[in-house]
Specification:
Elements lengths: L1 H14 L1 H29 L11 E10 L4 E4 L6 H5 L6 E10 L2 E3 L9 E3 L10 E4 L3 H4 L4 E3 L11 E5 H8 L11 E4 L3 E9 L12 E4 L6 H10 L10 E7 L5 H12 L8 E9 H4 L14 H28 L5 H9 L4 H33 L15 H27 L3 H5 L9 H36 L9 E5 L8 H10 L4 E7 L10 E6 L5 E9 L4 H5 L3 E4 L14 E4 H6 L5 H4 L3 E4 L2 E9 L14 E4 L7 E6 L6 H18 L8 E2 H8 L1 H35 L1 H9 L4 H35 L10 H27 L4 H4 L3
Parallel strand pairs: 6-11, 8-10, 17-22, 19-21
Antiparallel strand pairs: 1-2, 1-12, 1-13, 3-6, 3-12, 4-5, 4-9, 7-10, 8-11, 9-10, 14-23, 14-24, 15-23, 16-17, 18-21, 19-22, 20-21
Amino acid sequence: MIKNYLIIAWRNIVRHKTYSLINMLGLSLGICICLVIYLITHFELRTDTFHPDRDRICRIIEVVTDKDGHVEKAASSPVDLSLKASGRISGVETIATYSLYSAKIRVPNGDLARMSYDNSIEGSRAPSTIFASSEYFRIFRYDWLVGDTRTALSSPNSVVLTRSKAVKYFGRLPLEQLVGRVLVFNDSLTVRVTGIINDWTSHTDNPYTEFISLSTLDNPGLRGQVFSEGGNEGFSPFFSRTWLKLVPGSSIAGVTAQFHQLAKGRKTNPDLRYDLSLQPLSDIHFNAGIRDGFHKAHLPTLYVLMGVGAFILLLAAINFINLSTALSIRRSREIGIRKVMGGNRLNIAVQFLAETFLLTTAASLIGILATGPVLSAFRGFLPSGMMTHLSGPDNAGFVLLLVLVTTLLAGLYPAMVLSGFRPVLSLKGAAAPKGQAGWYLRKGLIVLQFTISLIFIISTVIISRQINYMRTRDLGFSTDAILSLDAGPQDRSPKVALFSDHISQLAGVEKVARQSFTPLSNFEAGFDLDYKGDRPHRIQAGLQLADSNFIPLYGIHLLAGRNLVEAGNRDSIKEFVINESMSKAAGFKSPEEAVGKILYLDDRSYPIVGVVADYHENSYRQPIRPLVIFDLSGPEISFAVKLATRGKDLTSVKNTLAQIEHLWKDIYPGIPFSYSFLDDSIAALYTTEEKTATLMNVAAAITIFISCMGLFGLSLFASGQRTKEISIRKVLGAGVMNVASLLSRDFLLLIGLSLVIASPAAWYITHRWLQDFVYRAPVSSWIFLLSGGLVLLMGLLTVSFHTIKAAVANPVRYLRTE
């Protein structure tokens, strides 16, 4: 029976080659997109879900609230939190504090003795090395190959490695022979291997591969030496993390309340409120609001991707339904004969489902083959470490489920309709339902297809306009040929001025400025200033520490007054330059009025010597805020270097960069030289929007392609069904344009109706997206008209091939048998 179903299905597919090809292409494209989206979402959603007792694992986070209610959350925690919480917090089974350690790793003996390795984790800014205690391995379970989880980190200067790192550092020696081998971190810390564990094979946000015993840092001198040479800011909470595992049955809320009480004893700035909270393991990968240096997935985006995949597959299924029901009249006699010969409705429905299953299986094979190339083409959009193949039981199960769902989605309705034909009418060739019910259904499905396509197209245009708006809008400062370099950590020494002076003397450098951060860096530090004039009030302002070269280097427009004057004593503030927003916030009617007025910081007075035009110090998601620029050397300082590029070629610029690097190594030996061009840094701020625009472009192209393929098939069928009508009209005097407009009119009206339905839906979706931006491009009516006109034109081109072919055909050919 099954063999008979498949043989007949194959014959029908071959008989209707064009329609079968249209269906197969649509389904294969929809299935390919679904598989690609599945691999991405499956990878993200399964992050850190493989840990035993994962529902009981939490991370401590610090919550700092300023007096204006602004909340800052960080994954950091006090270094001694484990000791403080021990015995005071009930409901906790295990608690472990660890600290990150950025280092260069050297193997001092063996075949790889000359090798030096960077321990940064691929795809993140976090290091792969941590200082940890054995409690860490009670929270996160590893497969131990060599060593004992209870004793491996009990002694100072011990290190546990993952298998991959052991092979990388020592080669493929027997693992037992690696115990006792030596590694040197930053040429100052020597440790011995005491254990080797298996690597985790699933994705995690804790991909550490070197675990040094926490007791190694009991020596205060070694502690300061290790972290100062590693470039970290001391053994501080910023680099410290704390994990805990709750006792079975304990509630997160109950344990969190106890940490609230523990946090009250910490002394902090009186203007800040400090607290401790718990973050479940399941929340970490999707919470970008808590910084820890690792890639974060945006859960709403994953849901949107799932919706896009479902919509595209639905469009392909609609094509199948439309063509199958349209072709029903050609198979009416076949159905009548089957019923006369004893076939029941179930047998006939299964026959049509078998045809759908055969087409879907072939489309799935094409989709699977196309998945790899598609993922390779979009490699830049994929998270680091994601697998690009479909091997494994989970993936195989999803493919099988996708085939079955697509078969039912595309084939169930046509099977029920076709199997319901009455045999008497079928044998007369009049099996099509009376009235316009079938045609109305196909009209509705066409409208649905193009509505979805138009929503994608309109959304794409609006998103692209916003990105172009952000690219072309005046930022208020120059970005050409400016690079930024961070100074040495905690550097208050004369090295800063020395390095700046040496760079400024290079022939390829136009100007050098010292600054606390670059414009448009999303740096949000601020403080309160008081104005005690006619209307005294307090203003929350941002800050920019800079020298007198800062304003001219960036080409910031000076509206009134003068620039900063180089301070003689760089440990004190002398004067302020403010921006226009600050001038307005203080109540001044014009920038000129602000010059000479006094602002107070901690009851100390500072004159305003100049007012500059507003410029963006944050992305377009945030408003330009009041800003104060003053001259003060701080621990967080960077350099802005404007290169002299006029009349210079690329070789000259590279030589200048090499000279800057040489000076850096002379003044800051042991600290890696790194720089970034301001243009690149600004472009990186809108990476998410760029990716969203690209994905929307692809989705719009796919949906319109699938929709037009369905329209192509229906126009082919419609022109074939109306050949005699067209011939009679031509005999009676109808011209080619009359016939072409007759066949095209219905389809174009349906596309117009789709535009009416899609426009408010697309406006609502994009309006919600644009609310994230304070500065945004206006949404104009021409966007909707242009999108609708584009789709109408594509629809007209799609149906015109068959309509014109039918219109110019010789009527005698179709009327000679009448």
